[in-house]
Amino acid sequence: MKEFDLTPLIKRRSVSEIVLDLPCDETERVFFNGYQTWSPSHEEKPSIAVRTIHPLVKAMGRPWGTSRYGDGFFIRTEHDRPGMFHGFSYFYKRYEEEYLLIASTDETNGYTIFRYDFFKSELSIKKDAGMPKYDQALHIVAFRGGYDEVFDAWFEAAGIKRRPAEPLAGYGSWYNRFTKITDETITADLEGCAKVLEPGDLFQIDDGWQVAVGDWTAHPVKFPRGMRASVDDIHEKGFKAGLWLAPFGAQADSQLVRDHPDWLLKHDGKPWYAGSNWGGFYSLDMDIPEVRDHLRGVFDAIFNDWGFDLVKLDFLYAAAPWMTKSGPFFGESRGARMCRAMDYLREWCGNGMILGCGVPLMPAFGKVEYCRIGPDASLEWDGTFIQRNASLEYPSTKNAILDTFYRRGLDGRAFLNDPDVFFLRKDNIKLTEEQKDMHARVLAQYGSFFLTSDNMGDYDEEQTAHYKELRKVWTDKSFTSKKFLKGLKD
Ligand code: 9PG
Question: What's the rounded Cα separation, in Å, for the pair 339 and 363?
Fold first, then answer.
């Protein structure tokens, strides 16, 4: 496919920015890719006001770092202003089935940030560059055509190939028991899964197994047998074993923070607080050689001593909130830093499979086998009132469905998309039967990961049959209705 020539649209340009004259009308839609995994990434009517966090709420959330999950601490937006959009690494506008895709071919020198002003008909494309000693240039391409055509052309032009991997179905422990997992609950869930899942499926242990975030050893009371014993049990049932961790995070009350306060990433001389989870956590500075040695050792234990097949690497955004402020990479941009973090992870994990999560997407392209492409599924349809208003990256089944659909172009090109889990259970869930079914069908159709977080041992015959039917949709991609978009969107 031939590149689309943007030259006639250029209003102004410099090395690191292009401003295009790009009128849009109400019959067209624009797509902006959110900062990271959990960020809303939807097609929108160009004249609407997208959701932003109220400035007062943002200020109130400061002690909890509520804007540090997303780009709210470094991107300025005007609250409630219609016709203003921004996003990262790729953008498209659509008229019916024709797409104009403008996308970055290289983020190793920084993020490509798209900002659109509908009322001015202006699209600015700007490199979030580092200091002048680093390449400041935009690297973009544009294509016009059908959805798959333009995405194929982009990945071809960028020379990005996904890592070979197979789609995975299975179970993840988070969305039922959350951190309240123990050797007993894992064993019980494993027995339940063995009744419904198939050999080769994934059984993934999520947050809650460790002593603390930062202290990546099995919790001695919750997992007295150690993690190797769980892996052996999982393998015995014929499943692949997965383990969650947040390698660039350290919770405030961890042993790591007590022993090595010097390992924390500093910003303006203070440790960078990366979010409120686990009573608050900090970022580790990967430019400290001891931090890299430590993490290399953590992955060595997980893959080689304990025998896990896959790691779910979460809260990865914490590695690169700012331009690098010290060390040999002084002055590199935040996007460059994030790309480098992904290279380290790839190196430390060797050929072990990685599921990326909480990560700016393009730095993960071709680096991880699987990547979460949306927010956490929530037990209520659209999160809680506080969650909805505090952050854009909040757990929401509704937003999980939308991101799954609107980021489907990445699936099988950048990595295999993980749209997060679905639910068929009847207890500990506030979704209606209809919502659960629609959610599961959209995930089955547009995702390559197909996990539930139910205790499958509790499924009755009807639920088991429902699971099997959905699983067939997942393998055959036989669900075609787009009715779910009605009611979620215009
Ligand atoms: C474990 C969980 C699960 C889940 C991940 C991630 O914006 N937030 O406050 C926010 C917190 C947690 C979170 C997502 C967003 O969940 O996506 O699958 O592994 O961590 O702690």
Answer: 5
In single-letter form, the type of residue at position 201 comes to: D
Residue boundaries of the structural domains of the chain: 7-158, 172-368, 374-410+419-490
Separation of CA 100 and ligand 1 centre (Å)? 33
Task: For residues 335 and 98, give the distance between their C-alpha atoms in angstroms, rounded to a whole number.
Answer: 30
pLDDT in tens, 225-272: 999 999 999 999 999 999 999 999 999 999 999 999 999 999 999 999
Over residues 135-191, the pLDDT tens digits come to 999 999 999 999 999 999 999 999 999 999 999 999 999 999 999 999 999 999 999
DSSP string, 208-225: TSEEETTEEEE-TTT-TT
Q: Are 450 and 167 in contact (CB under 8 A)?
A: yes
| pLDDT tens digit sequence for 409-438 | 999 999 999 999 999 999 999 999 999 999
CATH classification of 172-368 is 3.60.20.10, yes or no? no
C-alpha 189: how far from chain center: 26
Q: Is 69 in the pocket of ligand 1 (CB under 6 A)?
A: yes
Indicate yes or no: pTM above 0.85: yes
Nearest CA to ligand 1 atom 14: 376
Separation of 205 CA from ligand 1 center, angstroms? 14
Nearest-atom index, ligand 1, CA of 275: 9
Two tokens, residue 59: 């200020």
255-290: buried (b, 16+ CB within 10 Å) or exposed (e) per residue? ebbeebeebbbeeeeebbbbbbbbeebbbbbbbbee
Query: What does the pLDDT read at residue 488?
Result: 84
CA terminus-to-terminus distance, the chain: 32
Gap from CA of 163 to ligand 1 centroid (Å): 25
Q: What is the dihedral of CA 198, 232, 203, 196, to 10 degrees?
A: 30
For atom 4 of ligand 1, which residue has the closest CA?
Answer: 376
